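Hey, weird one. I pasted the Reverse transcriptase domain-containing protein sequence into the form twice and got a warning about non-standard characters only the second time. First submission, copied straight from the form history:
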Amino acid sequence: MPDVVNFLTQRGMTISAAKSSVTVFTLDPKKFCRHPTTTVNGASLPLVRKPKILGVRFSPPFTFADYARQIAGKVGRCTNVLKALPDTSWGCAKETLTTILQALAKPHVTYAESI
């Protein structure tokens, strides 16, 4: 870690220990709970098992199961709205339902799809 700190210091940058954490990504379940000792400027960095980076929740074995459940919940609420609209007394056109689907559900599904 001193090499990283020196590299950043030479370029006028610093690492904030208060905003930093350590996450272990591995396929070996025995290593999920291992907390590597990492210090920055004398401060020990905490272990975060499931960090949230740019809105995406990562898991140690890269299964993304938690993130998929979260998205399924959000999309489920959107589909409940879509199910209720055609049942109203005034009805709802297919084009309107498609537009609502694209506005409500599609952003949740397509965000971070390339990961």
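That's the output from the first submission. The warning seems to come from a hidden character in my clipboard, not from the data itself. The CA atoms of residues 7 and 101 lie 47 Å apart.
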